[in-house]
Amino acid sequence: MLSFVKLSLAGVAASAEGDRKRKLVETRELVAQTITDLRDLSKSLSFEHIASIGLRRTIEMEVERINKSGLLDVPSKQKGKSIRWANNGNWCCSGYSRKL
Prior knowledge:
Layout: H1 2-15, H2 18-44, H3 47-53, H4 55-69, E1 76-78, E2 82-84, E3 90-93, E4 96-98
Antiparallel strand pairs: 1-4, 2-3
């Protein structure tokens, strides 16, 4: 759906002029960045990704991503020890906490 919005904005921007065109191009770029961010989030939260790098590291990476955005500051720390599930390394920890 966002790809359709991006294409529609490109069409409208092509016939626009001046300030309106600039705003449409900026909006199209924001939609493109949103598509990329959603794709990255979907990949990072997939079962395969979590299984390969572990739940603890996945959580750390998502907290880093949120903090880099500058919109929120999400401090977090691990409580307890990591445990291993299956043969894929650290997969879970026994008490992950975060404050919002």
